[in-house]
Design brief:
This protein has four helices and two strands, in the order ααβααβ. By secondary structure, the chain is mostly helical. The protein has a two-stranded parallel sheet.
Length: 83
Amino acid sequence: MNKRRMEEEASQNMTKLENELLINSGIDYDVKIEVGFVEDRIEEHLKTNQISFLVMGKEMSLRNKEMFDDLLRKLQVPLVIIP
C-alpha cells in the first residue's frame, strides 16, 4: 500500500471515530496523520507542538517492542496506553 493510500485510509478511519465518539463530546483533540517510522513521527510531533500527553493504543506497543521501549525512554510527556 502506498503512502497516499495509507493516509487516506487513516483519515477515513478517524472521520468514523469522530462521528461515533468525539463530536459533541466536549473533548478537545487534534489529529495529524503521517506515514513513516512511528517513533520518528511521534518524536517530531512532540517537538513541534505543545503536547501535554500522548495516548497510544496497546496494539502499538505490541507491534514492535524494541521501538516502543526506545520511545518510552525518550518520552518527556506522560503516556496513556488504551486497550
